[in-house]
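Q: Joint fold for the lines below.
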Amino acid sequence: MDAILSHPATLVFALAGITAICTGLGALPFAFLKEISDRTLSRSNALAAGLMLGACFGLLVEGSHSGWWQTLVGANLGVAFVLVTARLLGEHEPEVEDLATGDRRQMVLILIVMTVHSFAEGVAVGASFAGGIELATTITIAIAIHNIPEGVAITAVLRPQGVSIPRAAWLSVFSSLPQPLMAVPAFLFVDWFKPALPFALGFAAGAMVLMVLQELLPEAYESGRSVEVSWIVSSSLVAMLLFQGLLTG
Amino acid sequence: MDGLTLLVAATLAASLLAGASGPAYRFLTGGDRPPPLGWANAIASGLMLGAAYALAAQGWGDGPGLAFGIGAALGIAPGVLVYERQDAAAWDGTGADPVNDGPTDGYATIFRHALHAAPEGVALGVAAFGDLGLGLFLVAALAAHNVAEGLSLVEAAVKSGGSTGSGAVEAVVSNLPQVVFAAVVYMGLGAFPQAYPIGVGFGVGALVFLVLVDLLPRAYRQDGHETIALVCALAMSAVPLLAGILGF
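A: Joint structure:
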């Protein structure tokens, strides 16, 4: 037991686990929202869209540092993944109701997309430990804080569908569980994982972009005014860019 | 040839290329087929979003700071004010589309498209100031976007009884602010290089806002969200693809 606890992989797992838990904090601001009207739905979707588009930028920049064409190939695979997943979900509607309290395909899709994108972030955390504890600590803290607005984005989609705050928080944490699960093998087999990182980051970005364009934005426009939707998306995108710049700067 | 002359020449060529929307319209409609405006707007949206990402990546440097944020707010705010003053119903999918559905006022249409061209010009000027190669590359991306956007002007001209030629001329005229703003911003940054982060923020904010407030909602109405999402995502990825190949 002592050997397990003292193994560096345990520390990697524990720190990556904390990053996952931080995602749940994104649900807390929604405790102050009393009513979920059409307008709130539109604003929530717009907020989620902007945060996700901003997060994509960080993923693409990070991926491009390791290989721009690999990142782009990954991005297009991510687009294809969402297309196929959305098609499959459309054909198996009952399963959607089993997974969450709401019956919206969109909720399941965002959970799948955000969970899949966490695999890439888990690899990033694990691989960063190979570069020394200072680098790893910086990246782990950055991803932990970065996870909070991602939790906001997920809850922004789940909450208007009637999902409770605790359940939204749990589902947000759930979407980040691949981070500790992937961080450990990425740390132990860093040489094998590193070449895959730009593909994974691109994949995550592509999946999120299509999710935004195909699901979140159309619904935001449908239930709100395009001027309001546009400034919320633009502002939250810029805020996410600034946030990431602050963390990595 | 110095950077400013190159930028002005390339941006002018890109504006003139908007005139190709006339022949493109005739080719695409072939007499009685509806023009693929949704696709054109989706491609334009993707290229502009890709350009915004490329610009942000160029200005990323030590990480975007307060100046970037202020610039972005300045880029978004004028668009909000202008579009709030328009008939909201005409823009949010609950009313007529002023370009495609209703009677059009040629000057108003040109003005609206010129409003697009101004922030695009700012983005071009900023990008060229940071890296002339990237600036010229974005000019090429926006040239393709100008033709796509020009199609809606040609469509509006044809619907109101005009010719494709008059629509094409409107497309060229409405894009000329790109040239002016690109040149002014490029020279301005030469005089005040410390304003560069603000310029990057302005360009990114304005490009993203314009796509969201105008191009994408219209594209969704014209061709449905599934097709448009895919076309826009692919067009968006074309910008970093080409930028990567060219080494920007």
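Q: Anything notable?
A: Chain B touches chain A through 44 residues (CB under 8 Å). Confidence is low (pLDDT under 50) at residues 87-104 of chain B.
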